[in-house]
Give the backbone structure.
Amino acid sequence: MSKNIVLIGLVTLLFSSLSAYDLKSNMLLLNAELSEVQRAFIASDQDGVEQSIKRFDKHAQELLGNKEKFSAMLPEKKKNKANEAVMSAQIISHNVQIILDAIDNKYNQSGQVRREEAQRAYTYIEHACFRCHNIVRDEY
């Protein structure tokens, strides 16, 4: 009986460690992709912004957009925070669309206005990432 409890405990520990690693590795990937977006903005590389923001959005939606999948990666006491990830995914998606609309000049605006709106949307994406990260990570 006690061997079964120890075995179950080890399997649970292994699974939770792998889930935490998976979450951490995904967050590092998203961070790297968001850094690519920033570099493209700084270099005034419109094609680079478009490609990197689409790649970032795809991965952000895959990770954050599915409450059950995200919840499975969280420690037991944090599983109730998965809704924050879904909300962040929605904020990210909305702001990615603003950036893509600016690139496509959907609203026939000047280049300066489009750049500023796209860059502002980028900062909202950063804020959504940090907000989710802080809520899921911190104890308060």
Helices lie at 2-42, 46-64, 67-73, 82-104, 111-137. The chain has five helices and no strands. Residues 95 and 120 are 9 Å apart (CA to CA).
